[in-house]
């Protein structure tokens, strides 16, 4: 058991019979009345963010969550397969548990978030940035770099990214996996 004084960003708590991660919290001491803690909580299973206010000193259960290193092996009709980097144990994970799965390359290292008490997989975290090769995009025009106009491009894994006009098929780009945006072109 912990209290609201133990809150920190990223802490996973049991709340309303579900697991929530604390995204943001603020301790408030008004001039009149008792202190309280205003929080933003993200549901681990659904990804939905809710606002909640706890009275100061409220007891909460902290969930034990572990981040384990895995390597992505392959995908078939039933889902994605990963191998633990230390024990070589293989696990199967549904596509719905992986955010931005279109940026997942074979052989890529990821972190699998596991609820330690039940050994159930909660989510799969990709590295923040990945380098992808563009397999198709409309050809760009030479010297057309003055505007911030973007065009669609397809990556080697089948994902689509909006890229600047000067990026061509065969170029390698860095992609932010958290929101699926173009970061920069990578020189080899």
Task: Describe the structure in brief.
The model has no long low-confidence stretch (mean pLDDT 89).
Task: Please give a structural write-up.
With 188 residues, this protein is an all-beta fold. The protein has three domains: 2-62, SH3 type barrels, CATH 2.30.30.30; 65-125, Beta Barrel (OB fold (Dihydrolipoamide Acetyltransferase, E2P)), CATH 2.40.50.140; 129-186, OB fold (Dihydrolipoamide Acetyltransferase, E2P) (Beta Barrel), CATH 2.40.50. Helices cover 0% and strands 54% of the residues. The strands form three sheets. Strands 1-6-2-3-4-5 form a six-stranded antiparallel β-sheet, with no helix packed on it. Strands 9-8-7-10-11 form a five-stranded antiparallel β-sheet, with no helix packed on it. A five-stranded antiparallel β-sheet has the order 14-13-12-15-16, with no helix packed on it. The N and C termini lie far apart (51 Å).
What is the name of the CATH class of the largest domain?
A: Mainly Beta
- Helix/strand structural class: mainly beta
**How are helices and strands ordered from N to C?**
EEEEEEEEEEEEEEEE
How many helices does DSSP assign? Answer: 0
Helix content: under 10%
Which helices and strands appear, and what pairs or packs with what?
Layout: E1 2-3, E2 12-15, E3 18-28, E4 36-43, E5 49-55, E6 59-62, E7 65-76, E8 79-84, E9 90-93, E10 109-115, E11 120-125, E12 129-137, E13 150-155, E14 160-164, E15 172-176, E16 181-186
Antiparallel strand pairs: 1-6, 2-3, 2-6, 3-4, 4-5, 7-8, 7-10, 8-9, 10-11, 12-13, 12-15, 13-14, 15-16
């Amino acid at each position: 058991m912990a209290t609201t004084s133990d809150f920190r960003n990223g802490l996973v708590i049991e709340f309303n019979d579900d697991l929530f991660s604390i995204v943001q919290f603020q301790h408030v001491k008004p001039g009149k009345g008792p202190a309280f803690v205003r929080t933003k909580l993200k549901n681990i299973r659904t990804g939905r963010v809710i606002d909640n206010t706890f009275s100061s000193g409220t007891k909460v259960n902290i969930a034990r969550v572990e981040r384990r290193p895995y390597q992505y092996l392959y995908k078939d009709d039933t889902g994605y397969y990963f191998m633990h980097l230390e024990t070589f144990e293989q696990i199967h994970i549904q596509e719905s548990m992986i955010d931005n799965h279109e940026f997942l390359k074979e052989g890529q290292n990821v972190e699998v978030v596991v609820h330690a008490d039940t050994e159930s997989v909660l989510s799969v975290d990709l590295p923040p940035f990945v380098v992808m090769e563009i397999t198709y995009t409309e050809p760009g025009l030479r010297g057309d770099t003055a505007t911030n106009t973007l065009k669609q491009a397809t990556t080697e894994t089948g994902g689509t990214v909006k890229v600047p006009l000067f990026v061509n098929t065969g170029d390698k780009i860095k992609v932010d996996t958290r929101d699926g945006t173009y970061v920069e072109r990578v020189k080899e």
